Structure formats: C-alpha cells, structure tokens
Q: What sequence folds into this?
C-alpha cells in the first residue's frame, strides 16, 4: 500500500500543478481534454501532498486516506457523468454562463 501512495502522490501533484500552468490550459481544459479549475487543481495538490505524508504514518491512517479520497473522487466522478460541465456550478464553484 505504501508504494502506491507514492505513485498517487506523484500523479496528483503533477496533475494539480499542471492545472496551474497557463500554457497547458485551453479554455479551462488541461491538454484540451480534462476540465480543470482552481478548486480541482487545489484538491489534486492537497490530496497528492497528503499521500506523501501518510506514507510515513501507520497502516490505519493510510487506509483512512484511501477511503476518504476514494469517496471524494468517486462523488466528483459521478457528478461529472451525471451533470457534466454543470457539476461545478451545482457545488457553487465556477462562473455562470
């Protein structure tokens, strides 16, 4: 479980930081594919940084990290499938068109 936390940390940090790089963002899409905004970028950076922190914690804390962020990302994924681009507006984030 610990090596996977390193991988998760690296991936989430890279995705979160890439979301803040202006040259990679085209009309609020990372690489013209993934919808990004400041809230999602921040969530990725925080969850990636916490992954590195829980690597040194005991097994129960590591499991709690996986469960908590698993639920958060599952809810966001379901909202993305159901509501599409309007998911951020439903949560109160983003600009109204």
A:
């Amino acid at each position: 479980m610990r090596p996977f936390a390193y991988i998760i940390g690296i991936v989430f940090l890279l995705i979160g930081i890439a979301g803040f790089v202006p040259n990679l963002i085209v009309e609020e899409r990372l690489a013209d594919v993934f919808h990004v905004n400041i809230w999602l970028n921040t969530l990725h950076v925080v969850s990636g940084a916490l992954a590195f922190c829980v690597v040194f914690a005991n097994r129960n804390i590591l499991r709690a990290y996986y469960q908590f962020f698993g639920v958060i990302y599952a809810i966001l994924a379901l909202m993305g499938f159901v509501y599409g681009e309007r998911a951020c507006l439903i949560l109160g984030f983003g600009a109204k068109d």
Q: What stands out?
A: The chain has a mean pLDDT of 78. The two ends are 43 Å apart (CA to CA). Residues 2-90 form one domain. The chain has one domain: 2-90.
